[in-house]
């Protein structure tokens, strides 16, 4: 930023933070705010702007929609990796997916990866399913993966990842089996890409999810929202789940104090179950009794 003093810097930061929140519902944590200037450097260059002050001045004129979109994209955190939190994916492989296989009598498995970023989570799920395909052969499997970032969804849809990307969490056996060389990069096989429907969508104005999902993942997403917005997202997830659904959040996230749509799952550590009307009535009685 220019040497306009702390007040000028704080003013610019407030403008950019407000833009991000109005477009995505996300708030900028202190850790992300201090990296703001670095994240926006390509935007400044591409739009011929000298500094952050020049950027915010143009934003205030509200006449450049493409600039607003570029700023929001730059400020979004698209951090992701394959099989992120290996303990959770072990539980999926050994407990949750076998449970869903046993209980879904209609042989339909519907999965929603909400806030999928650049797609590694969805591809990790697809790899797990394909590696155990003898179990799922004959099933109808749908994986919906949504994110507010158009740039992230574009990469996810392409299935193209750098050498550094695939080295983060992807076993060499899965890399060789399910990815193909693509120049200096790697591309997910057609079998994997066909399993997943990647869509750009906003959790506060959703258009893509339809019906109910058996497995819902919304990991490391809620932590960017205010408590009120977290409740809104959990209500949305509850609306698209059923009594047998399993919800998985990030390691530092919880449904406690975030509404009454989900409760801790009785079988899967760290997982959540849709709260039924009977359970909700019981909880209400316990609260009144307390």
UniProtKB/TrEMBL annotation:
<dbReference type="InterPro" id="IPR029063">
    <property type="entry name" value="SAM-dependent_MTases_sf"/>
</dbReference>
<dbReference type="InterPro" id="IPR000780">
    <property type="entry name" value="CheR_MeTrfase"/>
</dbReference>
<feature type="domain" description="CheR-type methyltransferase">
    <location>
        <begin position="16"/>
        <end position="269"/>
    </location>
</feature>
<protein>
    <submittedName>
        <fullName>Protein-glutamate O-methyltransferase CheR</fullName>
    </submittedName>
</protein>
<dbReference type="InterPro" id="IPR022642">
    <property type="entry name" value="CheR_C"/>
</dbReference>
<dbReference type="InterPro" id="IPR050903">
    <property type="entry name" value="Bact_Chemotaxis_MeTrfase"/>
</dbReference>
<dbReference type="Pfam" id="PF01739">
    <property type="entry name" value="CheR"/>
</dbReference>
């Amino acid at each position: 930023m220019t040497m306009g003093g702390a007040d000028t810097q704080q003013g610019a930061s407030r403008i950019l933070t407000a833009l991000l929140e109005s477009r995505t519902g996300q708030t900028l944590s202190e850790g992300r705010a201090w990296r703001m200037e670095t994240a926006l450097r390509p935007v400044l260059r591409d739009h011929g702007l000298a500094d952050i002050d020049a950027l915010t001045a143009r934003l205030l004129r509200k006449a450049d929609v493409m600039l607003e979109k570029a700023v929001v994209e730059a400020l979004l955190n698209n951090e992701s990796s394959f099989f992120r939190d290996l303990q959770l994916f072990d539980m999926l492989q050994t407990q949750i997916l076998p449970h869903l296989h046993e209980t879904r009598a209609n042989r339909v498995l519907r999965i929603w990866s909400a806030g999928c970023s650049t797609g590694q989570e969805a591809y990790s799920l697809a790899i797990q399913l394909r590696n155990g395909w003898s179990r799922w052969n004959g099933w109808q499997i749908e994986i919906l993966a949504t994110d507010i970032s158009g740039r992230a969804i574009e990469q996810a849809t392409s299935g193209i990842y750098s050498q550094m990307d695939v080295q983060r969490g992807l076993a060499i056996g899965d890399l060789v089996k399910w990815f193909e060389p693509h120049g200096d990069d790697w591309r997910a096989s057609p079998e994997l890409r066909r399993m997943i429907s990647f869509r750009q969508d906003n959790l506060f104005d959703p258009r893509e999810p339809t019906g109910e999902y058996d497995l819902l993942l919304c990991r490391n997403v809620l932590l960017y929202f205010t408590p009120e917005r977290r409740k809104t997202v959990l209500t949305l997830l509850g609306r698209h789940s059923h009594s047998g659904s399993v919800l998985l959040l990030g390691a530092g996230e919880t449904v406690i104090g975030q509404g009454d749509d989900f409760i801790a799952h009785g079988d899967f550590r760290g997982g959540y179950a849709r709260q039924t009307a009977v359970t909700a009535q019981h909880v209400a009685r316990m609260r009144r009794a307390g």
